[in-house]
Amino acid sequence: MAAATDDAGDSNEMIRVVSSDGEHFEMPEAAANLSLVLRHMIEDDCADAAGIPLAVVAAKPLAKIVDYCTKHAAKSSGLTIEEAEELKRFDAEFIEVDTDMLYDLLVAADFMGVEGLSKLAVQRTADLIKGKTPEQNRETFGIVNDFTPEEEEEICKENEWAFQITKPPSRLC
Amino acid sequence: MASQSLGAGRPWADLPTDIFDAVLRRLDIFDAVWLTGVCTSWAKAVANNPSLPFDMPCLLMTHEPDYYDADDSYDDCMFDLHKRCTTRHIDDEPVTAFMRELWGRWWVGANGSWIATVDYYCNAQLINPYTGDWIELPPVPILPDVEWSHGIRCYAISRIVLCETPPLGSDNGAYLAIALLDRPPRFVAIARGSDQSWTILKNKKRKWSKRYDDAIMHKGKIFAVVKSGDIYVWDVRAGYDERLCEPEMLRGPNIGRPRYSVRQCYLAETVDGGRLLFACTYGSPCPDERMGFYVEGMLLYELDINVAHDGWRRITSLGDHSLFLGLNYPFWASTQGKTSICMHAVV
């Protein structure tokens, strides 16, 4: 019980962070603790009124990350089934973003060490890739086909077995 | 960075490696292979993924018969192979894949993406399950003193050592294969791409009824080892001419009196290809002979064949490499950064 009181006391303190483009954000300490990098900075007493600068995270993804951490920190322990479901719904809606934002979240969550968000963004990326042809994936992610015609032919030939079969029939699994 | 991506979009092509690998772990093997077709950097990222032990995908084959539904219309699965494709999805069972090309055939060797198979009548083929290419190997020559069985001249190729595989995308079928025949007469034969027939490597020093355990190509010569550990060497660098080409004999390492009643000898090369490797597994008999034997230990030696009077040296550590021996052409895998392979293991 004592520990819980302490935690509650700590999380009342607000942590300031600054995006690469100079915007300031605030979140409870419990939320900031979900980021490995922020937690280390707080533990090292680097969190001051000027805010922790995050040199590679722009304002738009940082706003999302603050949002994510605040939500998850508030519901971190002793979840009821309904609350867990609500958090799941929040995640599902949260990650419904375009590929530009998804990329920024992937890189920022990785940089800041927000494990839950990293997993969420990686899973979303994998879901976008699944079942798509190379051409469809290029379109989804805005990637230019930089193979020479010879290289492309070779790849097609080498991987013909997989390009022809989408999935093995389920009875064989 | 931006050169590979469109306009203002994010540089997905250059996604950091650790993030790309995390995404890859959530995909099955088919999606992963499809990713290699997206762009050069993703192709490289898939190829370099450390969670894939070798060139992916791995095809693991067993001698178990296929299992299939009773109402399945496929007949004669009895001698077929049970093929398992590994997937990198950690939580999943491996995907079992059946290959139509291999029904009714045994696999007797492999190298890289090529599998060597034979059917009941000893017709040998090379099959590439990834590209679907196949090459018919030449027929085994009929010898006058071949044993007859059930009215047919019966051979049994127990092993095809695929020393050189056909280059990808070429139709000329350039390969070099050594066949070991495992029913008297037992002999070693070689075939190269476009040969009309296997060439039998004659050996007057040895009875036709004696078995060869393994063979390999090393520095342009064919080495075949027999149970006693002795090795016969045919120099085929200038082509094969049977009048000139009785083998030299190379004494195997002195492994002392065999402590165990059964053993199997293998040949391989060191990682750099510079020295010949001799491996011997020993153990005790298994009640069912077809299952091989219970292996209880292994001895490993190396020799530089170009150094006169160089003796066999015992090897006790393979460093950070693993050596794979068996029906597959022997190959080395580096164990650095690959937790799925034990250090200095011979498998």
TrEMBL record, chain A:
The organism's place on the tree of life at top rank: Eukaryota
Domain SKP1 component dimerisation: 116-162
Pathway field: Protein modification; protein ubiquitination
Keywords: Ubl conjugation pathway
Domain SKP1 component POZ residue range list: 14-73
Example GO BP: protein ubiquitination
InterPro entries documented for this protein: SKP1, SKP1-like, SKP1-like_dim_sf, SKP1/BTB/POZ_sf, Skp1_comp_dimer, Skp1_comp_POZ
Family as reported in the entry's similarity comment: Belongs to the SKP1 family.
Subunit record text: Part of a SCF (SKP1-cullin-F-box) protein ligase complex.
Protein function: Involved in ubiquitination and subsequent proteasomal degradation of target proteins. Together with CUL1, RBX1 and a F-box protein, it forms a SCF E3 ubiquitin ligase complex. The functional specificity of this complex depends on the type of F-box protein. In the SCF complex, it serves as an adapter that links the F-box protein to CUL1.
Record protein name field: SKP1-like protein
Organism of this sequence: Oryza meyeriana var. granulata
Automatic annotation (TrEMBL), chain B:
Gene3D superfamilies: 1.20.1280.50
KIB1-4 beta-propeller domain sequence ranges: 101-336
Limits of the F-box domain: 12-50
Coiled coil (UniProt feature): none
Protein name listed in UniProt: Uncharacterized protein
Domain of life of the source: Eukaryota
Secretion signal span: none
